[in-house]
Amino acid sequence: MDKVWERLQPGRREQVRQPQEAREAMEQRVATPGVTPGARADTAPVAEPAVDAGVASYTSPEIRRVLANMRVLVAIFAIAEVLSLSSPLSVASRGGAMAYAAFGYAAYAGGLCWIEFRGHRLLWPRLIAWVDVAWILTFAWLAAMHSSLLMLLFFPVLFAAVSFGFLSGLLVSLIAAALTAAQIMVRVQDGAAILPEAMLPPLLILVFGPVLAALACVGMRINEQMTIAERLLALLDPRLGVARMADTLLRTLAPRFAADRGWLLIWLPGSEARLFRVGADGACAELHGELRATLIDALGRLPATVAAVHQRTAGPRRWCFAGPLGLELARRRASGAARVPMQQLAELLEARSLLALPICRRSPHPNWLVLDSRRRRYRSRDLELLSAVMEPLAPLVENAGLLECLADEAMATERARIGRDLHDTAIQPYLGLKYGIEALARKAAPDNPLRADILSLQEVTVGELHNLRELVSGMRSGTSAADNALAPALQRQARRFTELFGLDVVVGCDAGLSIGRRLAAAIFPIVGEALTNIRRHTAATAAQITVRDHPQTCELQIRNAHDPAAAPPAFMPRSIAERVHALHGSVRVELQQAGFTDLIISIPKGPAARASAP
């Protein structure tokens, strides 16, 4: 316990000193052996809006609105510049065209600003920068290539870089400089401009345009990193457990990076590997079984210090964009160590664009965050951004696992104490009752008419005492492994109802039924309550119990007969419903046409079953 406490991050130790909040948070954790919900619906984080593949890859609506406002300012500056120019041009011939062009651009900028503030999407957002270049070059041509108007070409460079990355900004700057130089050469041939002074604006655009694009991309990356990190830090709380942490991370990061699927492998010291998955619908689940083992094995082959991207592109771009791209996180340099395992993982997941990032690298086991997208091709900038976001968040994931270990140890200690108390108090009266019935059975003569009832009561007492001892033993040892304890317990309960009350109970369970003892201990009193209701409130002389094992849930069907001519009114047993809802399950009553009443109960498998999953 002390070693685990020492490993906690200093900034989070105070959170462990809140036992009541921690206990309430730990009680909210739900896990199942097949596919387990990662968080409750009422406390799940709000998923980020999905990123459209045709729109800016990492531009937020706020940034787009700022750019739209800047375009309006550019239009106002152009109008003021056009109106203030003293040009030898004829006002009737070209001055009117300049005014029309300036006011037309102002209307265009105002329309784009209105669209952005309304929250609508543009049809062809990548054309906006080129339209800006065309408008500005038109102004400059009509104004005899005035240098102040040519300097406005830096705005489309900034817009392209902020919206679509450095390469887009670089391309706009190069083409804008080339078109400006071409216009100037035409002016020089006409004698309206003089070299070399006239070539200064295109040279400035050629030199400072890429610099502006690079600075804009760096600023956007830092802004995006801070935005994502601040949102996650506000949502993440290690006291809520690993499942809730994984749910928050996946449901926040997947939309941000336009991922259709995401996986998070968390394998902390002293605990088993846990694999979580989020789908395109935003539902987070914990995986178990063969799929979990296969994915953990595939992720384990990846180098623990290299983040990688893999592309699978069909068609003419296949050889240009396909293949893996690795980044060694410690030295921030390219690496090909993940090429083969990354390709195998992409084939296993049938992924088109796959990103894999190691997290919690101080752990002896690999921990991975994997994103798959069919709408976006991941690049090295995505690796760098995601790595920068996860670097300060990795200790929170570790703390969540360590807090779970602390909580499990505390619960194990408390269970052992309660088990000892039950053994010393609750079991002793049952032992006295057992010894008294045994003495009474020995005194009863073989021809005594009550001897059969006494022997039957003795058998029931011995069985109940055995069940109580098993429960106390399991509580003291903390064992929760799945076994076949439920079926024999239901069989004994059925025999008891048959012998004591004359209710013929038939129990049927799926072959290979394996239910954890904790879940079985929760199901057993529910079945007993249902049989008691049948005995007290119906005229049925027989009942049937069917237990079905599903990957996510355990389903109970308790059936009794009723008069087909006079079906009973709809009734929901309140005590059973309360017990089932406390286990996050569901219950319903169905009246069959054949004269049967079915009580159908569905309970998600709890932590006990999860611990037994392969």
From TrEMBL:
> Primary place of residence?
membrane
Q: Which residues cross the membrane?
A: 72-91, 97-115, 127-144, 150-182, 203-222
Q: Name one Pfam family in it.
A: HisKA_3
Where in the cell does this protein reside? Cell membrane
| Topology of the protein relative to the lipid bilayer | Multi-pass membrane protein
Picking any one GO molecular function of the record gives: protein dimerization activity
Chain intervals for the UniProt region annotation (Disordered): 1-43
Please indicate which superkingdom the organism of origin belongs to: Bacteria
Q: Name one GO cellular component term.
A: plasma membrane
Q: Would you tell me the protein name for this molecule? A: Histidine kinase
